[in-house]
Design a protein that fits this description.
Blueprint: H1 3-23, H2 38-41, H3 43-61, H4 66-76, H5 88-107, H6 113-134, H7 138-159, H8 167-176, H9 182-199, H10 210-224
Helix pairs in contact: 1-3, 1-5, 3-4, 4-5, 6-7, 6-10, 7-8, 7-9, 7-10, 8-9, 9-10
């Protein structure tokens, strides 16, 4: 989902959160379960607001996102010593989290920790690729490199609102959107093809020297993992 739609949905969820917070009672005002309380009447609406907000945060930032974690924590926070759910205090605080997220998305300052954690995993895989090459396991090194290259670029593209079935479609769309320039697009394509030769058992792969495979891995380390 593109950020324009994310912004629109976030704005709507913030408005709904404010309406709910204004209408709900504080937990300290409810001494017992009262079927007449606004909290009971608004429960189905609050549930929908909460679930829709959670789904949007998961979609945009991933299941491990700190934005999602903070939102859920606020919803579940204990107020006045009792378990939270939908009271004036925690709904207002959760709405404030959504306001922070909206401001971050609009400013281009979003932190996607799920993506950062994946980059760390990819870095480890790339280190293994270098080790394979040192042991002269050239095919394994090239295949590991291609896995890191393709997965990192696709995840980066997803953050930019770009998707495609084929790798070439993804990098073309990234260039058309102005996210990457033509030289990088060409380099990504050439290096992806090298990795694909190894993965598919292409005889042409034998023509590459260890030095060229090392350059391929260096490109992934220096140009891809830094996207």
């Amino acid at each position: 989902m593109r950020d324009e739609k994310i912004i629109k949905k976030l704005s709507n969820f913030i408005k709904e959160g404010r309406r709910l917070a204004n209408a709900l009672n504080s937990e300290s005002d409810l001494d017992y379960f009262d079927e007449r309380s606004e909290n009971v009447k608004l429960y189905p609406r609050a549930i929908k607001w909460s679930r829709d907000s959670i789904n949007l945060l998961k979609l945009r930032f991933g299941a491990d996102s700190t934005h999602l974690e903070y939102f859920v924590d606020e919803i579940n926070k204990r107020v006045e010593g009792r378990g939270g759910r939908f009271y004036k205090e925690n709904v207002a605080n959760a709405t404030a989290i959504l306001e922070h997220v909206l401001d971050a998305v609009e400013s281009g300052l979003t932190e996607d920790l799920f993506y950062k954690r994946e980059i760390l995993v990819f870095s480890d895989l790339l280190e293994q690729a270098f080790e394979f090459l040192e042991s002269d396991h050239r095919i394994a090194a090239a295949i590991y490199g291609r896995i890191v290259l393709e997965t990192t670029v696709r995840e980066f593209a997803r953050k930019e609102g770009v998707e495609g079935e084929k790798f070439d479609q993804v990098i073309i769309k990234l260039r058309q959107k102005g996210v990457i320039q033509k030289p990088l697009e060409s380099s990504l394509r050439a290096n992806y093809q090298l990795g694909s030769m190894a993965a598919h058992g292409d005889e042409k792969f034998k023509n590459y020297s260890n030095s060229e495979i090392r350059e391929y891995l260096n490109f992934i380390r220096d140009k891809v993992l830094t996207l």
